[in-house]
Amino acid sequence: MTMTIQMKFKVLLNEFLTISKPYITTEVLEEIKSEYYYQIGSKRKISGIKDLEGLIKLLEKYTIISYDNIKPLYFISSYVKPNLLIRLEKYESDYNQAILSKHFCQSYNMYKNNNDQGQETFDQMRLPNSLKESSYKSVLSETAEQFSKASYDQELKLKQIVLLKINEQLGHSWKNICRLLGLKECEINEIENKNLSIKEQSYQALRICILQNNSDWKINLLHALEKGRRKDIRENVEKILLNNKI
């Protein structure tokens, strides 16, 4: 039977707890608890946590940790001697693959159909026979650099388009969505303390979350909007991503 991503998440948590428990002393537990005090917002609940398992359950209850956000596990793993990064990275790889399959299967099928009709890929292009090996390597190097820069510029432009579109609709939801994107409470407080309109606050926060995030930003954004109950914005973002496929 194929495991769902939620099942894999439960397996990951069980393995993580089994390996980590011996290394989480009372002192270490207090340090970890202090990291999530503001997100939980309840001194009574924080003080009631007596072990790592209790903390993980509370973080799950507040959706600080979930099948689509395992950042706290990376933080906790820094206190554990055995290297847990391989397990965490493997889970994230499986998760990202599952989400990409769900959200971009239509785009993938369009790409596949085009290739089936005879379009050449970059690797399939042939250079003239007269091109010497040194020139060949030089051309490949220059082409790769140009391709990389063009891709970066396109990605940056796409981020800006998405940022402006979201900012038009987000309003007071910006804090919740940006928390789901990993923005820290101190950063949110800093933006709130500025004499800015809601739209300006939203723009600054989204800029940090989107423009400065170069890995998996599309997937993270779609899930933050889904989890933050802004399906209306998520659908608009999906349309933009499909129409501006890089």
From TrEMBL:
GO terms for biological process: signal transduction. CDD domains: Death (cd01670). Pfam families: Death. Signal peptide: none annotated. Residues 159-241 form the Death domain. It comes from the Eukaryota. This is Death domain-containing protein.
